[in-house]
Amino acid sequence: MRTRSTASAALAAGVLSASLLAASPASAAAHQGGLHLGYIQYDSPGSDNRSNSSLNAEWVNIHNNTRSAIQLKGYKLKDNTGYTYTFGSYNIGAGKTVKVRTGQGTNASGVRYWGRGSYVWNNTGDKARLIKPSGTQLDSCSWGDGPGGISCH
Ligand SMILES: [Ca+2]
């Protein structure tokens, strides 16, 4: 009896650690399955001359990897300094991507313009956050000093 309960305890522990091991890839998959930050081109190519085209070559992709459209009104993008972009009404379809460019421009399907006159994403390292209208942080992505961009997933 004693031996049997020890054996079943060991078996239960084995099952538990197996489920813990399985939890990691499952939660990563769940994360990618949601609305999340995609590629971030934090370093606008060429010299940072603050021209509108250069500002717009700095951007963030947000990807909707769910099976439903999501209304982004009130969702926010925020950097380490506290600069914040708040979405107006924008319906992102299932499986779709919306690009938020730093400079000025005319909003269209798949692209939103922050409307800034200076860069937001630091080339020397920064952190992007995607925040729900409730204030809950949905995703974040950070990078260090270096040229180019980062694939957040
Ligand atoms: Ca930049």
From TrEMBL:
Keywords: Signal. Transmembrane segments: none annotated. PROSITE patterns: LTD (PS51841). Residues 1-28 form the signal peptide. Residues 22-145 form the LTD domain. This is Lamin tail domain-containing protein. The lineage of its organism: Bacteria, Bacillati, Actinomycetota, Actinomycetes, Kitasatosporales.
